[in-house]
Amino acid sequence: MYVFQILDSYAVSGFCLLFLIFFECISVSWAFGVNRFYDGIKDMIGYYPLAWWKFCWAITTPCICIGVFIFNLVQWTPIKYLDYEYPWWSHVFGWFTALSSMLCIPGYMIWLWMNTEGNRSTKIRLIVRIDDDVKTLRQKMQQEAQKKHGII
């Protein structure tokens, strides 16, 4: 139970989830594009949801996630289980387990930045933005499928 409390409080806590949700919202709404995502939702459900969702995906949710994440860091206190106070090394282990999943995102970002050729603007264009939109990709896929089946 003692090990479970450490892992529950650090590795699967709000820290990791808020961190991952923040980067997910940023990648979908800013890198992929909120309008492309909005078009994809329409393709899936058959109609456009309220435009309010675009604002939530791009602004509200990332701001709330990073705000709560920072608040949790500021308000952090060492955990206790009943009357037992964990030793310092168990908190280090807990933070290590939390950071093992959280640091994958910035670590991959740094690795990708260092291994992409070009100047800053070229790297941003190659790494962050997708040139094709959903409609263009769908047309390309339909043309390839038609060529494959001998229709064209």
Automatic annotation (TrEMBL):
Single GO MF annotation: gamma-aminobutyric acid:sodium:chloride symporter activity
Would you identify the family this protein belongs to, as annotated? Answer: Belongs to the sodium:neurotransmitter symporter (SNF) (TC 2.A.22) family.
Record keywords: Iron included? Answer: no
Q: What is this protein called?
A: Transporter
What PANTHER family does the record tag this protein with? Answer: SODIUM/CHLORIDE DEPENDENT TRANSPORTER, TRANSPORTER
Supply the source organism for this entry.
Answer: Phlebotomus papatasi
Give the InterPro entries listed for this entry.
Na/ntran_symport, SNS_sf
Give the UniProt subcellular location, in the record's own words.
Membrane
Q: How does the record classify its membrane topology?
A: Multi-pass membrane protein
Q: Which UniProt keywords apply?
A: Membrane, Symport, Transmembrane, Transmembrane helix, Transport
A GO cellular component entry from the record:
neuron projection
Coiled-coil residue windows: none
